[in-house]
């Protein structure tokens, strides 16, 4: 009864919001049109060319059985680290290459084809939802902050925090009865023998189970990928219009008043309130607005890093739509995004304090200054120029070493946890 009452309340609230948004479009038609055109431009020039080929290739690799064979090879790595099947490495790698929501699309396909349990899908989605390096190095570092070297800072903070989220979610749902039952069934049917032989056999078995001729497989891959791209583009256009309407109508300022008071108490520049709210909705707009605010650089870097890790409600809506036909829940996904954003922002401050962003800028500038000398074909001339360009960047290497140290500590802690867990099981 209480659940039904909450459902009625949410329906009324959503209906009111839809009516208000429709009225806002009638009141501000020009604003909505221009924002929609900007969203379409982003989709046509960036989203479709960059994501569509990855979607098609991933569908082909799934249909041909390559992903399952790839998963068998990487099972010894993914299972101890993150408690997910080896096929999770494919979602991780494609997410790194294409960015979100590529990982959600692949995870949903894994769940639909029974290559992972619901709990494993939720664990996988928690740490594979990452931005692609091209976005952080190109769009954010170069396009927004005009500093290519800051891309290393964003990437280090983003991927290290993502790894830590994956380790933390290793224990998510470990006592779920359905998950345990599916894992036991999978262990019973798991083939034994040489790892490479098993990978080859699993690839052939997956191809036979699919059974579609290559022509039909390619056609289905293209049609399904285009449908997914259109869905993603629609969300981008919709949220671009929503953000612009909220800003023009003044609703964004009203919503941001409590956040402004909190920022003032914490000593954070209040000019970052608007970009924060925009970043909650859409990461590109929030990051771009943050870059132009006359606030301390470290605050802007931390906020942008958190926004990228959070990824915005626009991406969350895309992920939710992709997961519609699965039983994977969104609650752990949201928890992971909060944790990822907090860790990424904190690591950005730490790494920048170690000199990663600052010294990297000096190194890049020195390399650019000595670039004509790099054309010297003699070995001594090249190395003299390289060493001179990289001198004075000790803080950069200290930052990288610190990141590697944190990774090593995480691996040692994970190993200790595994040993303790094995001891407890053996005693039980």
Automatic annotation (TrEMBL):
Keyword Transmembrane helix: yes
Superkingdom of origin organism: Bacteria
Keyword terms: Membrane, Transmembrane, Transmembrane helix
TM stretches of this protein: 12-31, 43-62, 82-103, 124-145, 151-172, 235-257, 301-323, 335-354, 396-414
UniProt key word Metal-binding: no
Protein name per Swiss-Prot or TrEMBL: Sporulation integral membrane protein YlbJ
Species lineage: Bacteria, Bacillati, Bacillota, Bacilli, Bacillales
